[in-house]
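Lab channel / #folding
Pinned by the channel admin:
"Please post every new chain as: sequence first, then the C-alpha cells as a reply. Keep commentary short and put observations after the output so the thread stays searchable."

First post following the new format, from NK:
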Amino acid sequence: MDSRKTERSTKISDSIPGSLKQRNRRKTGPSINSFSLARELELPSKKMSGLGALKTRYRPFICPLDLVLSQIPEGARLYDIGCGSGALPYLALKLRSAEVAHGYDISLEAIRSAKAFDVDREKFQIVHMHPQDTPPPLHGYDTVTMVDVLHHIPPDLQDDFLRKTIAQMDSGARLIIKDIEGSKVVGAFFNQLHDLLLAREWVHHRRSQDIRKVLQSMGATVSQPVLRWTLWYSHFQIVALVP
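Reply from TO:
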C-alpha cells in the first residue's frame, strides 16, 4: 500500500499564529508514518486480545497519529482524553520523549488492553472514568490531546465539554484536537458506518471551523485546521493555546 495515496494531507490554510508556528517546525523524525507507527505497536498489540488488539495494531492506518505526534513537543507532560488502549501516550513516550503520558477512557476493555504496554508505570498511567466525571483536572500538563472523541459526545454537550476542558487546563498549555471533518460528506459517512459497526453508536461530526470558533470564543489562540485523508476517512486537526 502506498502511504502517499492513503494519506493525502492538505492544509486548509497556511495562516498559523506565530506562537504555534514555531512549534509546528518540530519533527517527529524522518521515518514517522503510518507504517512505522504500526510497527511500534505490533509487539504490544500481540499481548492484547480480541478487537482491542486489532484496533491498536492498525489504528495508524485509519487515524493520522503521526499528525498528532508532530504537535506534541519534546519532553511534554501529556494527557490524552479518551485514550483507548493508550497507543498515543505510548508513542509519545517512545518518539517524543514525553516526561509523562497519562490518559483516561470510558471503556474498561480499553483500560485492560493498556496493561500490554511495557513502560514505566509512573510515566504511563491509563485510568477508567465514567462519562459524568469527565473531563478530569488537567493542571500540571502542558499538552492535552483529544483524538476522535468529540464526535462521540452528544451534539448539545460538545461545546460545553470543550469549555470544561479549557477551564481545567493551565494557561499556556496546548490542546490538540483531531477529529472527523464534518464538512466532508463522504468521509464523514464512512466514519459513521465505521462507528456503527465497531462501537454500535451513532456519532455526531462537526465542521472544524465551527470548533475553531468555539475555542476562540474562550480566548484561546487557535491554528487554522489541517485536513488529512486516510483511506476513505476525512480528518482535521487544530491546535489551541489556552489563555
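NK: The domain at 3-241 is CATH 3.40.50.150 (Rossmann fold).
TO: also worth noting, The longest strand covers residues 233-241.
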